């Protein structure tokens, strides 16, 4: 039964795009997908605090995301 449940879980939580794949963990990527954030440009329309409030986003994901954004010369909007 556990095998069946894990199959269902995997199917229902598939992230369609490759945005930030290999940069941040799946829970954080799913949180962004739920908000329809699929590019760095869209991400720059949000503040760091707004992103941190998303379910699935934590300090580790934010730290990795900020490094990636800095490398690509993108930043969060100011509060």
UniProtKB/TrEMBL annotation:
Domain of life of the native organism: Bacteria
Name this polypeptide is given: RNA polymerase, alpha chain C terminal domain
């Amino acid at each position: 039964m556990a095998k069946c449940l894990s199959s269902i879980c995997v199917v229902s939580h598939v992230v369609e795009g490759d945005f930030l794949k290999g940069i941040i963990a799946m829970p954080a990527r799913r949180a962004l997908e739920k908000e329809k954030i699929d590019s760095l440009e869209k991400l720059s329309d949000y503040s760091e605090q707004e992103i941190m409030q998303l379910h699935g986003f934590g300090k580790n994901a934010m730290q990795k995301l900020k490094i990636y954004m800095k490398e690509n010369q993108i930043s969060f909007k100011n509060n």
